[in-house]
Amino acid sequence: MGKNLAHVISADSGKGAEDAVLDVMLAGVYGVETCAPCGVPIMRDASSWTDTKNPDSAKSLAESFSVLGCWAVERLLRDFLAAERLAKSGADPEVTDAVIKGYQTAFAEFVASRNFANDSLTKGLTAPLKPEVPFVVVVSEPTWRMNDGMFGFNDRVLAAQTAMSLRKQGRNVALLDVRKLLSDGIAVEKAPVMIVFAQKVSAYYSLQPKMLTERLVKYRKAGGKIIWIGGGLPDHALCDFSMEVACRADVGKGYDYCWTRLPVDRNAYTTLTLKVEGHATRKLERNPSFHAGWHIPSNVTFFKPEAIESVMPLATVRDQGNPILVGGAWPKKAPSIAYFPVYAFYPFLWTKETPTLVPFERGLDSQGLDSLETAFLALQVERLLKK
């Protein structure tokens, strides 16, 4: 700890009013690069200390916190001294249009350039274990902000959990940075199966939904198989059925104040069941609104009964015995896309399993693994993945 403190510099940045304000606005952005590598060590050592009271874990934990603390102190001192100087000079720092433009430019550059492979969540998962043979790719993104990004704020977590789970099964798998997918695509010969977690898809600086759709359409036309897990169906360009057979339930009434949205009334949570083809029916074991983790699953999409003419059924929920088709694959005779609502993968909703204390290694629960297996069978994935 002392060595980190010894390197803390107390110095004014010397910047003018607008640049000093911009510095403050960007502190959180650049702080990510300092914080990200410390995440896994902090979680690992905190878990070890909690479980074993190992003094080496406590020492290592303190060291990681000192890295973060010293960085924060140095930034705070720099900004404070700059503010003190500017106040004495009579300057009146404001968030001007120029400052906002500078922030947007810097943030866009940051999103485009930050190192995805060094994040605690993704480290070690961005390259296949056997690059010389075909592998599964799980699309993820470089953004870390809870409510911002191309995909939903917990889709990065689910992507990493899935990659970890597949590796534990002995499968060749890697996370794929969505920036690389958008800029270069990926050869089907290298990665014949793609998994996308997308509780939402929205424009985020250089990350554009239109380009994502174009890449996925091209990938599919080349023979690639796609497993789409999210808050709704993928873009219509990827749906080989009449969109009239797909609906979104109006669940606003009767839900009161609830973050989660499923295609049933909230009162059905006590009796709700999920059946994934080829596996046993499971009942909802935990309320989906924060009872199974800090993030929540939402998807109100379902298929009308006539959808089975063009969609292979994969997942059904039952609200008091009433079957509702919520997941499927298409085209029905030879599917190339499998679609599941995110709650069919969300850990610990449908099982009584509990997470391990090992950071970032908990993976999916048995329900999520069942859903993956069903998707692989529907898409005939095994013949594409040579061992």
Structure report:
This protein has helices at 2-6, 17-35, 39-52, 55-89, 97-113, 155-168, 178-184, 209-221, 366-379; strands at 136-140, 173-177, 193-198, 225-230, 246-248, 273-276, 282-283, 301-303, 312-319, 322-330, 337-341. A nine-stranded mixed beta sheet has the order 2-1-3-4-11-10-9-6-7, sandwiched between helices. Strand 6 (273-276) and strand 7 (282-283) form a beta hairpin. The chain has two domains: 2-113; 119-383, 3-Layer(aba) Sandwich (Rossmann fold). It is globular, with a radius of gyration of 24 Å. It is of the alpha/beta class and 387 residues long. The mean pLDDT is 88.
Return the CATH topology of the largest domain. Rossmann fold
What sequence of helices (H) and strands (E) makes up the elements? HHHHHEHEHEHEEEEEEEEH
How much helix is in the residues?
25-40%
Instruction: Count every beta strand, where a strand is a DSSP E run of 2 or more residues.
Output: 11
The end-to-end span amounts to: 47 Å
Instruction: Name the CATH class of the largest domain.
Output: Alpha Beta
| CA radius of gyration | 24 Å
Strand order of the largest sheet: 2-1-3-4-11-10-9-6-7
Write the layout of secondary structure elements.
Blueprint: H1 2-6, H2 17-35, H3 39-52, H4 55-89, H5 97-113, E1 136-140, H6 155-168, E2 173-177, H7 178-184, E3 193-198, H8 209-221, E4 225-230, E5 246-248, E6 273-276, E7 282-283, E8 301-303, E9 312-319, E10 322-330, E11 337-341, H9 366-379
Parallel strand pairs: 1-2, 1-3, 3-4, 4-11
Antiparallel strand pairs: 5-8, 6-7, 6-9, 9-10, 10-11
Helix pairs in contact: 2-4, 2-5, 3-4
